[in-house]
Amino acid sequence: MNTSSKKILVIVPAFNECGNIGRTVKEIRSAGTGVDILVIDDGSLDETSQEARDAGGMVVSLPFNLGIGAAVQTGFQYARRYDYDVAVQIDGDGQHDSGYLGKIIAPILHDEADMVVGSRFLENIGGFRSSFSRRIGINFFVHLINMLTGVKVNDPTSGFRAYNKRMIALFSDYYPHDFPEPEAVVVAQQARARITEIAVVMRARSAGSSSIRYFKTLYYMAKVTLAILLHMIRQKGRDR
Q: What is the pTM of this model?
């Protein structure tokens, strides 16, 4: 992967991902040179931090579990502080294939997009597509975001994303807290960001389990919908 002269930071939020995080970091390192890897250990109770360091990643350890939004925002703040040109978000559970890093980053490097989302559903190219209940939630957010903003993102819950410097600055100041990915699409759209999708293949996690299961899917849908609506109301108030 040729990253030219740009400074690129891969942000890997992780909570109790021992057994996954080492493989994830090693895979990112093998995908190309010139990419820095920052693991945000979100108050893990296992050996996530040590496993990440042993694999060659930089680690920021949060004092206790603050949630995925705070962990990712910490990565954006690091990227802004150290003047990175591109930030890439990859989950620490091994589901994202770093072989797609070059494709995810390319629209940013060519100034064709401000934010790139790696999509499981843009093309029928196989791979893991999550549980039936979660696919219902994903489809719900596809239509909700399209209805509210006019932007259609086929995989709004994907945590495999790339951002340019403007988005790094935006999300270092504000990033949604809980289940943040759908709302982050809306935040970016409200900032008039150019959002595009790249087809990727994802994998089932090889260790541990997802934090969103069974009835929590309904809670997730309700909470994120409310967060999106409140954000849009606040934004309209600021624009007046």
A: 0.86
